Amino acid sequence: MSNLHELDAYLLGLLGKLEAPQRRALARAIAVELRRRQSARIAAQRNPDGSAYEPRKPQLRHKRGGIRRAMFLRMRMAKHLKAKATSSAATVEFTDKTQRLAKVHHFGLRDRVNANGLKAKYPARELLGFNDGDVDHITSLFLAHVVV
């Protein structure tokens, strides 16, 4: 564990030597890559720990011959899942309108199903999160940017 603290201190020193535009470019590259990886994981319908999302409940009325689409099809588009970067941070977040729906599904809250006020409890499906592969990929991006 102490090796990780030493590595963190070393990488923080390297980051401190970069100018603000270089840090912003690095943060932008990290944010874009994180958005891509999060979107792919949502498309695969997997939680950050690798477990599958809980499937949808069966619908009472289903259109004849209707196609069952994947969950969160539009939420994972770049229009709704934004990558933002500054010289001090890289973030991946949902837009304002999508954020409420994402929060309900991420934490498994209760929400209205329709305009009549019918409410349902949604199972928790973690939309955003880190796994070991994400951390390794961010580290390799950082090192590639600093070494070049």
UniProtKB/TrEMBL annotation:
InterPro entries: Phage_virion_morphogenesis. It holds the Pfam family Phage_tail_S. Residues 40-60 are annotated as: Disordered. This is Phage virion morphogenesis protein. It comes from Ralstonia edaphi.
